[in-house]
């Protein structure tokens, strides 16, 4: 059965986008000093006896509720207006971020998620606080309290809402989001738990670790469910960390007898990759096949323009389809992950998609870091394997690709890697610029190794000149040299 004929288990992704909402006061920021200063000013201006210590001990409800405690009903609107008038000058600079805020926002970014703030505070004041503290939040929303916060959370499809108040729990549950409570506001951890919080943390310093574990679990469950929906699979198995994890996951989900690992053999595959790939496939108990691919016969591949990877991936999938048909296998899967999908320069992904290949890792929103973490927890030897793109990625765009050029790069990289083995080198790239070569190694090693020795090793393989890149290894650095990259995105 053709891969393209298989019904899709999901049209795009198997898990919703990660969108995390936060309350503001006493969740992200300690706004008590600034708010108290504003209330002190109102007390001085009006002569009202306001217990400002009490006011800031119960932040959370709408301003009108608190104002009604201290002023007659017919004055509340006017006092709210005055409060908001003086707030920017007296409350913003006195507020501080609570511990763990920056790390929490960064953890969401690392998981390719979006952030929002949903607060009962006046929306312009919310924005002033975020701007003043430089907090990178995608969507600030104000003037919502309690269950009404669910309106904004649902609108932006938030899956998690973090707050310090019982009203924040109401807002999360109204939106069907996970209610994460932090005990940094007026309620204790026990009170928040008893009220119905799904997760209770002491403060935001505990949030990144909880989030990483929670999201990884959700995404792994989605991955296994997607894989289990296919009776059999061919996995395009390069031997790298991503395809190795996918292969192991497929074997777990549907049984190794229903999985075939296919490693394409061509001049673009580094010689050192084939034996470890065979050993890994044997270790997870799946059949391993090594079909030859002939991307070198495709003019678009040899020409080596910005869309070279399109022709390579087209050749790969078209080679694997007859194997899938021969074994009666339902689908061909590639190791494309969530980071690949947004990298902005992946013409190969388009070629595989057009030919019906599935991308279970991407569909589960698994990032490269999550794949390595899960691989480590499963005891896979590839968990810390350095990235190893095909040899053609080392040839400068516009330089026509030949088997001899690929072999020269392979020999040069093996020589550099062997020389640097005592230093614990992870990443080595010899970039073929035509007659010269650029040598990229781990940035941490640049000051510790003899660059002249590396240059001589590379020149010995047939390059007229070579130099060590002072910026160190950078994945996809050849794309930096491409003219009009947008043409190939």
TrEMBL record:
Family annotation (Pfam families): Hydrolase (PF00702)
Listed transmembrane segments: none
Gene3D superfamilies assigned to the protein according to its UniProt record, in alphabetical order: HAD superfamily/HAD-like, HUPs, Putative phosphatase, domain 2
One Gene Ontology MF term: sulfurtransferase activity
Signal peptide annotation: none
InterPro entries named in the record: HAD-like_sf, HAD_sf, LarE, Ni-pincer_cofactor_biosynth, PGP-like_dom2, Rossmann-like_a/b/a_fold
PANTHER family: EXSB FAMILY PROTEIN (PTHR43169), NAD_GMP SYNTHASE DOMAIN-CONTAINING PROTEIN (PTHR43169:SF2)
Entry protein name: ATP-dependent sacrificial sulfur transferase LarE
Organism: Kribbella italica
